[in-house]
């Protein structure tokens, strides 16, 4: 099947591409005659030469360049009004500026007309030679197509070809070459004696207005936006090769809090929150959009196929997504084939080495057992001291010695092999890009694996005299794992010798070696049990843009995703322990199959005009969204015939849960927006969207309106600022967005249950439903300023925002006498405000050396203002870990942690001696030296006071070194893992058990009265650490400062010089090594403080516990070759 699938893919690609490339030319030269009849309309009365080049490029796709660095690009002329042929326009601009033009290497090149000899008569004409070389981007090393290379003061020159190569004949010795390319800083280079001269050009962000992708996939100039948008280019995340691309966002964008999951195969998952947790029901995840089409996640997208990632942080930026935009929007723009006019081939290969980032430090004096005695039924390490005696353990009577490295030895070195092949071709009119990526992962847990295959195809084409712009993209993703299991060895006794466990059979197929009664040998679990999965996912979109005339255009787009997934658990025969269905010795089997899709179809009509100094762009359109999902689940607890894994092979009747038509949802939308500009310095955007959602169908409130208005003012265009100012912008806006609810919230539903004796059961969901539920609703405003100085070497971006979110949809617990457990209501108001700062600087910049630095900083305060007006004391809790809960109460900041606390001494002058006043707040033990429980209290808050990052890149010629530090300050962390280590006698402090615990922050009810612990009052360590201090309901003493600084990424790359590749078929080559999660500075020991846990559908950060896989420290070695 696999061979058949991958034989079909190229055929489909060929059939798909053949119409688009039926007009491909046999040579790579544009013919002026062929495009000379294209009509080019100019609406302005005056334009600059630079504006003409840009306008003609957009209208025709032709490339324009110039030979002379002193061409009057900013000088204006008066073009003829109306629509004229391109050839007439070229002649017109030539006459206006005394220029001439011709075609060189497929470019339309302008230069000044000769006024005399045209040569540098002062130079020695008899001392000339030929020179050649390449012109490349200083950052990427890629060749620049169409760059101008000319001898200063002459018209003798060349334009680079598709490889970035140039050649000039008869170059006088001692000449100066002027090298220029639109979008780059021009450079003058002295010619020496060498016949080969390679030149690097630096990108000039001031040369062309920076363009970013905004809502609906529309590209906009950054200067015109009245809201905050930050983007990340592909080179920032391709070197790290994260399997979950969202992990690459961590620390790169202000206001975005990304928390990496553990070290599981396939990426480990992540938690991402933009501008705080405004939704009580946990709907704080952003909306993901790929090429204008919403998708459930971006984990399945290969980094090599992404051109850029843009983050729309607030409602003002995301308002056009209406009821889906409450958590912000992350936009993915896919790469296309470019316009290099030849077939291109890019190869990238990498290998990533992974090991657990942080492992605990243990006491190594005592082994498994309790009360100082060995006990194989207990996982605890309160057993006897290691003294070499003989103890009957896993492999019989063996010496009682520690194995202090058993946890470290259990983990294997994880390996990820990634290979990517990209084929591109195209020109200014049409192109394609075909990418294939294969990922093969060996997990850090033994015998676990993961494999991905990704195919990405992009096609663009301008057809029918460039009036129609066709774009299409298809992505296919398949992931497979033969065994994906999580076993956590970090709480195993140090007496456990892994060598005794690895040969796990005593009677093959029937009896295994075990170290803990009623529990499987971990190597049995990993080799005899299989937890497999297969997932197929398709993404696709196609858009057709038609240009009616210079002012009116339309776009129709359709796309979506489809997935199918099956997971299976095959429990091997010989398992230990029992279940409610009996023993597991014959094996067990479970499977889950699911599928789903979402489609989006939208259309947009746009009118774009300029009336004098006023620019006007008005658009209107609509969207239809449809989403379905189904699943079925079945379990056979005991197999009749071992190793026959089907639901029909059962000894006890299987449990099958069938949810056909599990979820259906539709949203229909209409929207419109207007972009106004005045003299390219004042901008106003107004948007409006109305949603009709099926999840609130048949109710009065099924229609919801979301407006926004933003402005942008370029102060540098209005005032005569000092020369140091390149740009200064003020912006602001107001917007309203929503968070729709899940399907069937307004209908009484039933759940199928297991039932008994083969008869299925039905369970009614006892939640009373409100008739007029509305979507969650957010109103927000933001103000900001953007500043660029010193030729873009210093930049500052500030944003302040406030958001009020109401109509929270939540099931409030109600009286049991109503017949319901809860009632679903619109409740609560959550208010938030925050500040975001991004500072960019280039402190050093020379021809060969450059230092770029970026600092991101943000803070957010989100508070529950109101829950129900009639009951101000009502609060909401959600279980997180044992007896620890999240806590939401009016007046409190979101993120509170709630638990019982240990009893504290409260000094009372009326009953206590004055000498006890200094012990107020100490832990208060009873007369048995036990620590009683107290009431529930807020014990901490997991949200940080602020987060930040600092990235630096230092480049010298082709060598580049970059580092990314991530900061998390002011939050509390619940260190449940430390509590478990302590309870089981593994923590360092539980060693040296001949000594008791003498507390310094506690008092107790001694026979002499309340007093502090003194010599002679010690508590035995097993009694204290194994019982009192780790009471399952008391958690306040395990709340710690969660602040940390992490060296998130360190990368070293080398761009191999073109001179070393000049005699090969390789155009460019790059080597790099990148480390991730390299070091953490934190008060929290034994675990990575950057962690989250799943609490139902909610991801809660800053909670540590056992059961997962430690976040990995990784090193990735990359090789990238372009042919």
Strand and helix layout:
Blueprint: H1 2-20, H2 32-35, E1 39-42, E2 47-48, H3 49-60, E3 64-66, E4 76-77, E5 82-85, H4 86-97, E6 99-104, E7 107-112, E8 128-137, E9 148-151, E10 157-159, E11 165-172, E12 176-180, E13 187-190, E14 199-201, E15 211-213, E16 219-221, E17 229-233, E18 256-260, E19 270-274, E20 287-290, E21 293-295, E22 306-312, H5 315-318, E23 329-334, E24 344-356, E25 390-393, E26 396-399, H6 406-410, E27 414-426, E28 430-442, E29 449-463, E30 468-481, H7 499-502, E31 505-507, E32 511-512, H8 522-528, E33 530-547, E34 552-571, E35 578-579, E36 582-583, E37 588-611, E38 614-636, E39 655-678, E40 682-693, E41 703-714, H9 715-718, E42 725-739, E43 750-756, E44 759-764, E45 767-769, E46 776-789, E47 794-813, E48 822-845, E49 849-866, E50 876-881, E51 884-888, E52 896-902, E53 923-925, E54 933-941, E55 946-956, E56 959-969, E57 972-975, H10 976-983, E58 1002-1006, E59 1009-1012, H11 1021-1025, E60 1039-1041, E61 1044-1055, H12 1058-1061, E62 1068-1082, E63 1092-1095, E64 1098-1101, E65 1103-1104, E66 1112-1122
Parallel strand pairs: 3-7, 8-14, 20-23, 45-48, 53-58, 57-65
Antiparallel strand pairs: 1-5, 2-4, 6-7, 8-11, 9-10, 9-12, 12-13, 15-16, 17-22, 18-19, 20-21, 22-23, 24-27, 24-66, 25-26, 27-28, 28-29, 29-30, 30-33, 31-32, 33-34, 34-37, 35-36, 37-38, 38-39, 39-40, 40-41, 41-42, 42-46, 43-44, 46-47, 47-48, 48-49, 49-55, 50-51, 51-52, 52-54, 55-56, 56-61, 57-60, ...
């Amino acid at each position: 099947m696999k061979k058949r699938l991958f034989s079909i893919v190229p055929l489909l690609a060929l059939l798909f591409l053949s119409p688009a490339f039926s007009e491909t030319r046999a040579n790579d030269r544009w013919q002026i005659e062929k495009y000379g009849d294209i009509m080019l309309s100019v609406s302005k009365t005056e334009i600059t030469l630079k504006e003409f080049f840009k306008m003609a490029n957009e209208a025709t796709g032709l490339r324009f360049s110039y030979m002379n660095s002193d061409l009057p690009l900013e000088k204006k002329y008066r073009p003829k009004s109306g629509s004229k042929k391109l050839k007439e326009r070229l002649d017109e601009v030539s006459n206006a500026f005394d220029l001439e033009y011709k075609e060189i290497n497929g470019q339309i090149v302008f230069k000044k007309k000769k006024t005399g000899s045209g040569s540098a008569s002062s130079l020695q004409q008899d001392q000339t030679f030929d020179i050649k070389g390449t012109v490349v981007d200083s950052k990427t090393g890629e060749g620049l197509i169409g760059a101008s290379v000319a001898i200063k003061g002459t018209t003798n020159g060349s334009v680079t070809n598709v490889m970035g190569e140039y050649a000039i004949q008869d170059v006088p010795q001692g000449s100066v070459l002027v090298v220029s390319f639109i979008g780059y800083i021009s450079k003058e280079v002295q010619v020496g004696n060498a016949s080969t001269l390679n030149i690097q050009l630096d990108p000039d962000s001031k040369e062309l207005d920076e363009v970013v992708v905004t809502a609906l996939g529309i590209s906009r100039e950054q200067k015109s936006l009245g809201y905050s948008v930050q983007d990340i280019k592909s080179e920032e995340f391709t070197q790290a090769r994260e399997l979950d691309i969202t992990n690459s966002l961590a620390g790169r964008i202000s206001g975005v809090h990304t928390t990496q999951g553990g070290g599981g195969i396939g990426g480990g998952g992540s938690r991402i929150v933009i501008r705080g947790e405004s939704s009580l029901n946990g709907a704080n995840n952003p909306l993901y959009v790929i090429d204008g089409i919403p998708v459930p996640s971006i984990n399945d997208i290969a980094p090599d196929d992404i051109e850029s990632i843009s983050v729309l942080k607030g409602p003002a930026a995301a308002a056009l997504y209406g009821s889906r935009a409450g958590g912000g929007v992350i936009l993915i723009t896919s790469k296309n084939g470019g316009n290099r006019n030849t077939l291109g081939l890019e190869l990238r290969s990498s290998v990533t080495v992974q090991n657990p980032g942080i492992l605990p430090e243990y006491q190594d004096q005592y082994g498994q057992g309790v009360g100082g005695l060995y006990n194989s039924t207990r996982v605890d390490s309160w057993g006897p001291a290691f003294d070499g005696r003989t103890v009957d353990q896993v492999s019989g009577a063996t010496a009682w010695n520690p194995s202090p490295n058993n946890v470290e030895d259990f983990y294997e070195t994880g390996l990820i092999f990634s290979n990517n092949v990209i084929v591109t071709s195209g020109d200014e009119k049409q192109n394609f890009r075909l990418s294939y990526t294969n990922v093969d992962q060996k997990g850090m847990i033994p015998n676990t694996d993961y494999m991905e295959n990704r195919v990405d195809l992009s096609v663009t084409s301008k057809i029918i005299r460039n009036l129609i712009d066709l774009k299409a993209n298809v992505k296919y993703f398949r992931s497979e794992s033969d065994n994906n299991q999580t076993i956590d060895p970090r709480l195993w006794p140090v007496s456990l010798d892994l060598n005794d466990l690895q040969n796990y059979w005593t009677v093959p197929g029937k009896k295994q070696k075990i170290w803990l009664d009623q529990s499987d040998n971990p190597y049995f679990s990993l080799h005899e049990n299989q937890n497999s999965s297969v997932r197929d996912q398709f993404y696709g979109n196609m858009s057709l843009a038609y240009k009616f005339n210079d002012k009116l255009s339309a776009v129709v787009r359709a796309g979506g995703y489809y997935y199918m997934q099956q997971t299976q658990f095959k429990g091997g025969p010989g398992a230990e322990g029992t279940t409610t269905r009996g023993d597991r010795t014959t094996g067990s089997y479970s499977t889950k199959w699911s599928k789903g899709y979402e489609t989006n179809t939208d259309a947009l009509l746009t009118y774009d005009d300029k009336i004098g100094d006023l620019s006007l762009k008005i658009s209107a359109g609509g969207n239809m969204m449809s989403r379905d999902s189904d699943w079925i689940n079945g379990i056979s607890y005991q197999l009749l015939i071992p190793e026959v894994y089907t639901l029909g092979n059962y000894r006890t009747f299987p449990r099958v849960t069938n949810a056909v038509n599990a979820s259906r949802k539709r949203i229909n939308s209409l929207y419109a927006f207007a972009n106004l500009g005045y003299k390219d310095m004042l901008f106003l955007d107004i948007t409006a969207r109305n949603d009709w959602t099926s999840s609130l169908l048949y109710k009065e409130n099924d229609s919801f309106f979301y407006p926004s208005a933003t402005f942008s003012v370029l102060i540098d265009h209005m005032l005569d600022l000092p020369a140091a100012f390149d740009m200064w912008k003020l912006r602001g806006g107001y917007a309203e967005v929503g968070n729709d609810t899940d399907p069937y919230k307004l209908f009484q539903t039933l759940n199928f249950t297991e039932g008994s004796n083969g008869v299925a059961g039905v369970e009614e969901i006892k939640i009373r439903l409100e008739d007029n539920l509305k979507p969650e609703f957010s109103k927000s405003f933001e103000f900001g300023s953007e500043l660029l100085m010193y030729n873009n070497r210093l930049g500052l971006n500030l944003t302040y925002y406030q958001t009020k979110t109401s109509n929270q949809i939540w099931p409030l617990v109600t009286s049991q006498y109503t017949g319901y457990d809860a009632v679903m209501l619109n409740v609560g108001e959550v208010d938030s405000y925050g500040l975001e700062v991004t500072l960019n600087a280039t402190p050093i910049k020379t021809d060969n050396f450059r230092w770029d630095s970026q600092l991101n900083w943000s803070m957010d305060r989100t508070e529950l203002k109101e829950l129900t007006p009639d009951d101000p004391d009502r609060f909401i809790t959600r279980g997180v870990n044992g007896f620890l809960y999240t806590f939401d109460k009016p007046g409190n900041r979101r993120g509170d942690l709630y638990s019982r606390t240990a009893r504290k001494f409260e000094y009372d002058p009326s009953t206590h001696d004055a000498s006890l006043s200094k012990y107020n707040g100490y832990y208060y033990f009873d007369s048995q030296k036990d620590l009683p429980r107290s009431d529930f209290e807020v014990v901490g808050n997991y949200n940080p006071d602020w987060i930040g990052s600092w990235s630096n890149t230092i480049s010298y010629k082709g060598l580049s070194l970059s580092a990314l530090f991530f900061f998390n300050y002011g939050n509390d962390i619940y260190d449940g893992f430390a509590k478990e280590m302590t309870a089981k006698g593994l923590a360092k402090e539980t060693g040296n058990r001949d000594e008791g615990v003498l507390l310094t922050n506690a008092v107790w009810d001694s026979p002499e009265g309340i007093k502090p612990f003194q010599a002679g009052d010690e508590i035995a360590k097993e009694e204290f650490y194994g019982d009192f201090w780790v009471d399952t309901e008391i958690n306040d003493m395990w709340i710690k400062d969660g602040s940390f600084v992490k060296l998130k990424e360190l990368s070293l790359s080398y761009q191999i010089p073109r001179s070393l590749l000049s005699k090969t078929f390789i155009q460019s080559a790059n080597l790099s090594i990148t480390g991730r999660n390299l070091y953490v500075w934190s008060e929290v020991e034994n675990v990575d403080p950057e962690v989250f846990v799943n609490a139902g559908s909610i991801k809660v950060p800053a909670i540590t516990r056992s059961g997962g896989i430690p976040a990995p420290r990784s090193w990735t070695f990359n090789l990238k070759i372009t042919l």
